[in-house]
Amino acid sequence: MTTETSATKRIVVVSSGLSTPSSTRQLADRLAGDAVAQLRERGHDVDVQVFELRDLAHDITNHLLMGFAPPKLEAALDAVASADGLIAVTPIFTTSYAGLFKSFIDVIDPQALTDLPVLIGATGGTPRHSLAIDYAIRPLFTYLHATPVTTGVFAATSDWGDGGDGVRSLPERIFRGAKEFADLVERTDRRDLVNDPFALDRPMGHLIGGLAGE
After folding, report:
1. Which residues are in the NADPH-dependent FMN reductase-like domain (predicted)?
2. Residue in 33, 39, 28 with CA at minimum distance from that of residue 84
């Protein structure tokens, strides 16, 4: 194990589960735990910030309507913009990501996600919803120039059991996704992007009182 530590890696975790307790938050915590363990084993200090989108739901809606982010939402947006990696987990509703999840993505400065490593997680009642990771969630982050890792982790209700059906167990999938994420976070340097002296302090949509792209 290396004894020399590099700059602290900043990981942001976003969970859009609506219930308490939430299997979506549980999956987010498991993904973050494995990713942090991977990075610390390699000698990195890690700072983790977790945001429950249900706590920001009113602020997100107000921002969509008014183009202004209240302090709690602004803190989440700033954290994403300055992160070295993002773990994003959503429940699957009607074959796709939750509306709250998409609304949060909509209020992020599009440039903030450029080259950002993303570990995608999703939860749903049955395994057939797992395809939503690749036909809905992954293209969303790719469109925004983020870098989703190859393995997306889906957890169906039955996956929280012992995994004795011969299918790769949930802990194994979590470990694989977290390892790929840690590999990417370790070799990605977004400091020049985050500290660009010519970048706007706020997205253009904020400066003109609305959202860019409207």
Report:
1. 10-160
2. 39
Beta strands in the chain (DSSP E): 6-15, 44-52, 85-93, 96-97, 117-124, 147-148, 153-156
Give, as one character, the DSSP assignment of residue 50: E
pLDDT at 20: 83
Kindly tell me if the per-residue pLDDT of 198 is higher than 90.
no
Q: What is the mean pLDDT of the chain?
A: 86
CATH code of the region 6-160+167-197? 3.40.50.360
Q: For residues 212 and 152, give the distance between their C-alpha atoms in angstroms, rounded to a whole number.
A: 29
pTM, two decimal places: 0.85
Residue 169 and residue 29 in contact, taking contact as beta carbons nearer than 8 Å: no
Q: How many CB atoms lie within 10 A of CB 126?
A: 10
Question: Do the beta carbons of residue 84 and residue 109 sit within 8 Å?
Answer: no
The 10s digit of each residue's pLDDT in 33-48 is: 999 999 999 999 999 9
- How many C-beta neighbours within 10 Å does residue 195 have? 9
Number of helical H runs and strand E runs in the chain = 9, 7
**Are 108 and 138 within 8 A, CB to CB?**
no
